Automatic annotation (TrEMBL):
Molecular function terms, GO-annotated: oxidoreductase activity
Annotated SUPFAM superfamilies: NAD(P)-linked oxidoreductase
Species annotation: Trema orientale
The organism's taxonomic lineage, starting at the top: Eukaryota, Viridiplantae, Streptophyta, Embryophyta, Tracheophyta
Keywords: Ion channel, Ion transport, NADP, Oxidoreductase, Transport
Segments forming domain NADP-dependent oxidoreductase: 6-54
Signal peptide: none
Protein name: Aldo/keto reductase/potassium channel subunit beta
Origin superkingdom: Eukaryota
An example Gene Ontology biological process: monoatomic ion transmembrane transport
GO cellular component: a single term: cytoplasm
Amino acid sequence: MDVPFHNLHLQWILHQGNGVARIPGTTKTKNLDDNIGLLKVKLNNEDLKEISDLVPINEVAGDRIHAPLVRFTYKFANTT
């Protein structure tokens, strides 16, 4: 694989299909250029399997927000 390790997660996300949102945030132009450059890199099935095997989904899946912080989310905001 010819992907900088720190950007590997973005490239893996790009291969997860249209049902997965990809929103890489950055404050530096160089990082934005690196992120855009990832579109040129293609992971093959072997690469994707290797990544998936290293990080089992049951170890990284979960709620986006920790339970104590849910009360601060927009779902509970008074917007009227």
